[in-house]
C-alpha cells in the first residue's frame, strides 16, 4: 500500500454490516471496499452485487486486504464476532469491530494485534454521529465554563453500550465509581416496569440512568422504545440532547429576576432528520469518519482504544450486570401517531 493508495477493505456481516458496506463503497470513502464476508444469505449476495464487490463465505478465501470492519455480534452478546476478529488479526489484517465488545475481549484482541503487528479498534458508532458529536463538544465547553455536576440519561438496553462511551467523553473522572440500583424482589424478579433505574457516582458527579431493559428473543435488534436522551447539568443550567439524532438545547438556570433571558436556546446545527436521512446520511457519514480515524491510527501504528475507553466498557458491563438480565418480551404492533394528531381540538 503506497502513501496515496487507499487501504483495501472488507466488511464482515451483512445485517447492520450493510450500513458499513454502503458507506465504504461510496466515492468519498477512506478505504477501497473490495468484498463482503458473510454466511452467504440471499440478502448478502444482493448487497454485494449492488455495490459491485465480491462476496466471500470464509476467511481463508479472502483476497489480499489491509482492513476489515467486523459487524457481527461479539461474544458478550452471544455471537462469533470476537473469534472472527482474532482470526483476521492473526492473519495480518487490521480490524475495527462494531460495538458492543466486553472489556476482556478488547484486551485479548489487543494482545493478538500486538503479536501480529496489526491494529485493532472498537467503533462505538454513535459518538461519531453528527448530533452526538455536537452534543459532546457543547458539554465539554460547558464543563470549562461551569463544571458539570450531574447527568440524567435514558436509553434502551440495545444502545446502552455507546451511552457509556458517550458519558466517558463528557464526565471528568471515571474513577472512583459507585453503582447503585434498586433492590430486586425475592427470587431475583424485577417489577413489571419496562424501565430499570440506577445511579453511578463518578467522583463527585452523579449520573442517573433509566434503561429500558427489554429484549425480543427472536428479534433482539428491534422493539426499543427510545435511543439516547441525555441531560448534563451545571450551576449555570442544563444542556439537553432530546434524541440520538436530534438537536442540542441550552436551558439557563431559572432566575426570577432574569425576565429578558430566553428559557431555551438551540446550540449549533438544528437536527430534525427523517428516518431516511438518518439511515442514508448521518449513519454513513459516521461510518466513514470512524474508518478515516482508523486508517489514520494504522498509519501512526497506534490503537484508538484508550484506558478510558476500556474503563467505560467495564462500567457498562458492571452496570448492566447490576440491573439484571433483560426481560424477554413478545413483539407488539406499534401504533403510528403523527404530531398533528396530538394537537388539542
Report on the architecture of this protein.
The protein has eight helices and 16 strands. It is globular and about 70 Å long. It is 32% helix and 23% strand. The longest helix has 26 residues, at 275-300. With 345 residues, the protein is an alpha/beta fold. The model has no long low-confidence stretch (mean pLDDT 93). Strand 13 and strand 14 form a beta hairpin. The chain folds into two domains: 8-123, NAD(P)-binding Rossmann-like Domain (Rossmann fold); 127-274 and 309-328, Dihydrodipicolinate Reductase, domain 2 (2-Layer Sandwich), CATH 3.30.360.10. It has an eight-stranded mixed sheet with strand order 8-9-10-7-12-13-14-15, covered by helices on one side. It has a six-stranded parallel sheet with strand order 3-2-1-4-5-6, sandwiched between helices. A two-stranded parallel ribbon has the order 11-16. It has helices at 17-24, 42-51, 81-90, 103-115, 130-145, 160-170, 275-300, 307-323, and strands at 8-12, 32-37, 54-56, 67-70, 94-98, 120-123, 148-156, 177-180, 195-202, 205-212, 214-215, 228-234, 237-241, 248-252, 265-267, 327-328. The N and C termini lie far apart (66 Å). Helix 1 crosses helix 7, helix 3 (81-90) packs parallel to helix 4 and helix 6 packs across helix 8.
Amino acid at each position: 500500500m503506497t502513501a496515496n493508495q487507499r487501504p483495501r477493505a472488507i466488511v464482515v456481516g451483512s445485517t447492520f454490516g450493510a450500513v458499513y458496506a454502503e458507506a465504504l463503497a461510496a466515492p468519498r470513502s477512506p478505504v477501497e471496499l473490495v468484498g463482503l464476508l458473510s454466511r452467504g444469505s440471499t440478502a448478502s449476495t444482493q448487497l454485494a452485487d449492488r455495490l459491485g464487490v465480491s462476496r466471500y463465505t470464509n476467511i481463508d478465501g479472502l483476497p489480499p486486504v489491509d482492513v476489515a470492519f467486523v459487524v457481527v455480534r461479539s461474544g458478550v452478546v452471544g455471537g462469533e464476532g470476537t473469534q472472527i476478529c482474532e482470526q483476521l488479526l492473526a492473519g495480518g489484517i487490521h480490524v475495527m469491530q462494531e460495538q458492543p465488545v466486553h472489556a476482556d475481549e478488547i484486551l485479548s484482541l489487543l494482545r493478538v494485534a500486538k503479536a501480529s503487528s496489526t491494529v485493532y479498534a472498537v467503533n462505538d458508532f454513535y459518538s461519531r454521529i453528527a448530533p452526538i458529536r455536537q452534543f459532546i463538544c457543547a458539554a465539554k465547553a460547558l464543563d470549562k465554563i461551569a463544571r458539570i455536576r450531574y447527568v440524567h440519561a435514558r436509553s434502551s438496553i440495545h444502545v446502552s453500550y455507546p451511552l457509556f462511551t458517550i458519558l466517558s467523553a463528557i464526565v471528568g473522572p471515571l474513577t472512583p465509581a459507585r453503582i447503585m440500583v434498586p433492590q430486586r424482589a425475592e427470587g431475583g424478579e424485577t417489577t413489571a416496569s419496562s424501565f430499570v433505574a440506577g445511579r453511578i457516582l463518578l467522583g463527585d458527579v452523579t449520573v442517573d440512568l433509566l434503561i429500558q431493559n427489554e429484549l425480543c428473543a427472536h428479534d433482539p435488534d428491534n422493539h426499543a422504545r427510545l435511543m439516547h436522551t441525555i441531560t448534563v447539568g451545571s450551576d449555570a443550567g442544563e444542556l439537553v440532547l432530546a434524541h440520538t439524532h436530534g438537536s442540542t438545547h441550552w436551558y439557563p438556570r431559572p432566575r426570577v429576576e432574569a425576565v429578558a433571558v430566553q428559557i431555551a436556546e438551540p446550540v449549533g446545527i438544528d437536527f430534525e432528520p427523517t428516518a431516511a436521512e438518518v439511515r442514508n446520511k448521518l449513519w454513513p457519514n459516521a461510518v466513514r469518519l470512524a474508518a478515516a480515524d482508523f486508517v489514520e491510527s494504522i498509519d501512526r501504528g497506534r490503537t484508538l482504544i484508550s484506558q478510558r475507553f476500556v474503563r467505560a466498557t467495564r462500567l457498562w458491563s458492571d452496570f448492566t450486570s447490576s440491573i439484571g438480565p433483560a426481560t424477554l418480551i413478545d413483539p407488539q404492533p406499534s401504533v403510528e401517531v403523527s404530531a398533528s394528531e396530538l394537537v388539542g381540538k
